[in-house]
Amino acid sequence: MLKELILSIRAYFLAHQFILTHKLWKWMVIPGIIYTTLLIIGMNYFGQTSSLFIESIILKTGLKAFIDSLNSNWLGFFITMGSFWLWFTLLLFYFALFKYLFLIFFAPLFAYLHLRIVAIQQSIPFILNKKDYYKLVMRSVIVNLNNMLWQTVYLIPIVLVCTLPVVGWFTPLFTILMESYFLGFAMMDFGLATEKHNRNFAAAYLNSHKGLPTGNGIVFYLLHLLPIIGWITAPFYALVAAHLNTQEIKDTES
Fold first, then answer.
1. In this structure, are residues 139 and 115 in contact, taking their beta carbons and an 8 Å threshold?
2. Are residues 183 and 217 in contact, defined by beta-carbon separation less than 8 angstroms?
3. From CA 80, how far away is CA 74, in angstroms rounded?
4. Measuring CA to CA, which residue among 197, 189, 27 is closest to residue 113?
């Protein structure tokens, strides 16, 4: 798995060179700006509502009054830490939903860009086959809806565990890894689809090579540590890196 993670991370450097060489910046700017704008609006809304939500739960359950009656600094510390990690896990969950909605609504654009990337990478003229294009769009929508469902199912017990002292403090790490896997899954599925692999094969393949999609998703999330620039470049870089990674693995296996 470590080798697969390294290959996926390396693919981002190859993607950077690929984008520079073929002057693909123009295809990144518009979806990147839209993604960044929606991200800022969404995170601002989450910041305004999440703290109130957690505070409301603490007050309505009587937990705050109970803690105050015990007058225990240690218990207060654990509750504060639990509240913080719950807030952070909810942030990741909100970001995951935002990410899926973006990938679903922009599936037509991402499918189009992927087909152009394939044509450039294979040095062939770009001719849009409408039938293949529509199939790729629908497949992307189905994959992301399916991933969103499963990630939500997996995240429910994680949210419950994150309220536990000490143990719950590590749940955001598992959440990030899970989200990275599903994000990379969606990006790499484009490449597997154009290789004529059905969704069942793609799911089985990526499930047995978890390092590939996880590595792609990890770098995607790390790019968000760079305000604005990282947010604009993250979606397109992830798409290009996933395709190059898919091709590299195919060539190696061949």
1. no
2. yes
3. 10
4. 27
> Among all chains, which residue has been given the structure tokens 């540590």?
225
Nearest alpha carbon to residue 21 among 128, 126, 117, 127:
117
Query: For the chain, how many residues are written?
Result: 254
Q: What is the pTM of this model?
A: 0.81
Interhelix angle for 63-70 vs 73-105, to 10°?
150
Helix (H) or strand (E) holding 205: helix 199-208
Q: Which residue has the tokens 């090579």?
A: 209
Tell me if 77 is assigned to some domain.
no
In the numeric block, which tokens belong to residue 106?
């922009």
Position 64 in a domain: no
Share of the chain above pLDDT 90, in %: 22
Strands (E) located in 78-131? none
Q: How far is the C-alpha of 242 from the C-alpha of 127, rounded, in Å?
A: 22
In a domain, 90, yes or no: no
State the pLDDT at residue 50: 66
Domains: count for the chain: 1
Q: Give residue 37's domain range.
A: 2-46+95-253
185-232: pLDDT as tens digits = 999 998 888 877 788 888 888 888 888 999 999 999 899 888 889 999
Q: What share of the chain is helix, strand, coil (3-state, %, to 5)?
A: 85, 0, 15
Angle between helices 73-105 and 130-161 (to 10 degrees): 170
Domain annotation covers residue 75: no
Q: Considering only CA atoms, which of 86, 121, 87, 102 is closest in space to residue 231?
A: 102
